[in-house]
Amino acid sequence: MADSLANKKLGTYTVKEIKSNCNKLYNLGIVPGARITVISNDRGPVIVRVGNCKLAMGRGMARSIIVE
User: Fold this and answer.
1) How many structural domains are present in the chain?
2) Mean pLDDT in residue range 34-58
3) CA neighbours within 13 Å on the CB side: how many for 42?
4) Pairing label, strands 46-50, 65-67
5) pTM for this structure?
6) Of residues 26, 7, 9, the one with CA closest to residue 17
7) Which of 23, 32, 47, 51 is most buried when burial is the number of CB atoms within 10 A of its CB?
8) What domain range includes position 54?
9) CATH number of residue 56's parent domain
């Protein structure tokens, strides 16, 4: 079931869709079909791993990433 990244528990997911036109996400390698691992999703920013990089993003940006 597809849901926004901001609502997901720790684990690895496949990016299904990006709901906003955010070039920053594309430049970071967060594109449809990419594998993304949620490292921390408590309070504050969502921390993910994409490839060999760890990224922290605000919840607004995380809500625009739809994963399955």
Assistant:
1) 1
2) 94
3) 1
4) unpaired
5) 0.87
6) 26
7) 47
8) 3-67
9) 2.30.30.90
